[in-house]
Design a protein that fits this description.
Number of helices: 16
Distance between the termini: 87 Å
Order of helices and strands: EEHEHHHHHHHHHHHHHHH
Structural class: mainly alpha
Number of strands: 3
Largest sheet: 3 strands, antiparallel
């Protein structure tokens, strides 16, 4: 199968360029004519004329989904039919998997499927919450509202992930630099001083002997150290994907100083924002709680929401079981209680979500502000210790010469 670059005049009179896959030139022409386009040019792509793209075809990021939702709303609110809107979005979407999913949804709708059912065929692209909201929007005639809410949801998710990623870059670089510096000094720098230190007519300090022995061990048995690292990483991955192990890791995570507070706020923000989004589009409370529980990253919070769902199904309000779970911050269940009393629970959830979004941002910045100097201090201590182990024997020799 080859790639063909084409230039056509679409039904709306606009010129369109792109690349398609086909076994032969004739089949490529047939694909274009099916869409009702007028072909201006069609040539097989090669190394010189292929359309270059930075997209590697990975799963679309929250930012990609946010842009897709907002563009869909703008197009549909302008009076464009859903099928035409999907066609237009497929032509300007950069992510390959998302583009293919949009095209697949368009074809399914043309065969009589609903948009929600079409999206269910691509679970890796369209999440359960997204499909549920689209289905509710189709049934209530407020599809644009559903996409608008999901656009906001994806945008906040993107902002939060970008913040955490940006804040973690500097500490990560420092940790990598620390490890690299220590390895280089122990395997290359320290051995160069060995002959000189052993030739000194003075006993070597214990610190120097320890580092020389550690240097020898790393050079001789580096594969053992590498195996230990691999086993630790593999063990962590296995534990993380085991239900019991994941619950243990999540419990431990919440007990770590500063990290636990940050993760609690992250899950509180995700819970309130997702639940508010679902309720605002008319999703029933029970279904909304089930879907929301599946979006939480911490097992303890997920179990708390599922327990709250069961309690609500028995006639309880939502705030009481959340309070009894002892994992959610007091502000969450207090504000939900107020929302239940006033009949504006989704509005209160929105306010709580906005509050915890800011709290997550502040907590992340504070943690990184504490972590950065700690790493620098550790780096200075490790490198300083290695240098000191090299200097101490020479100092002892000079002291002995002074006394002679």
């Amino acid at each position: 199968m080859g790639n063909f670059n084409y230039t056509v005049i679409a039904k709306d009179g606009k010129q369109r360029k792109g690349t398609l896959e086909a076994d032969t030139r004739e089949l490529a022409i047939g694909q274009l004519k099916v869409e009702g386009d007028t072909i201006i040019s069609l040539e097989e792509a090669n190394a010189l004329n292929a359309n270059l793209s930075l997209d590697i075809g990975g799963k679309p990021k929250p930012r990609d989904m946010s842009v897709f939702c907002r563009q869909f709303v703008s197009i549909v609110e302008a009076g464009v039919p859903v099928i035409s809107a999907l066609q237009m979005l497929s032509e300007q979407t950069q992510n390959k998997l998302l583009r293919e999913a949009i095209i697949g949804c368009k074809k399914s709708i043309e065969k009589g499927s609903t948009l929600a059912d079409a999206m269910r065929q691509y679970p890796q692209i369209f999440s359960k919450i997204f499909v549920t909201m689209v289905e509710a929007g189709e049934q209530s005639g407020s599809l644009a509202k559903s996409f608008s809410r999901m656009g906001m949801q994806y945008e906040k998710e993107h902002t939060l992930k970008a913040l955490v990623r940006k804040a973690a870059i500097y500490p990560t670089v420092l940790i990598i630099v620390t490890i690299v510096v220590v390895i280089i000094m122990l395997t290359f720098v320290v051995p160069t001083f060995r002959d000189m230190l052993e030739s000194l007519d003075t006993p070597l300090p214990g610190l120097t002997l320890f580092l020389l022995g550690l240097s020898d061990w790393i050079k001789s048995y580096w594969y053992i150290l590498a195996s230990i690292v691999v086993l630790i990483v593999a063990g962590y991955q296995m534990t993380k994907h085991n239900p019991v192990g994941k619950e243990f890791l999540d419990k431990t995570q919440l007990r770590i100083w500063k990290v636990g507070d940050l993760k609690t706020k992250e899950n509180a923000a995700a819970f309130t924002r997702t639940l508010a989004t679902l309720l605002a589009t008319g999703i029933p409370m029970m279904e909304a709680l089930s879907i929301t529980a599946g979006t939480l990253t911490n097992v303890l919070f997920e179990k708390a929401v599922l327990a709250a769902r069961d309690a609500v199904s028995m006639g309880s309000n939502l705030s009481s079981p959340l309070r009894d779970s002892e994992v959610f911050p007091p502000l969450v269940y207090h504000m939900i209680g107020i929302g239940e009393s006033t009949g504006d629970i989704d509005g209160m959830l929105d306010k709580v979500a906005d509050y915890y979004d800011e709290e997550v941002k502040e907590a992340t910045e504070q943690m990184m502000a504490l972590l950065e100097p700690m790493i620098i201090i550790i780096l200075a201590f490790v490198v300083g210790t290695i240098i000191l182990s090299m200097v101490l024997p020479m100092k002892s020799m000079y002291d002995a010469l002074d006394k002679a």
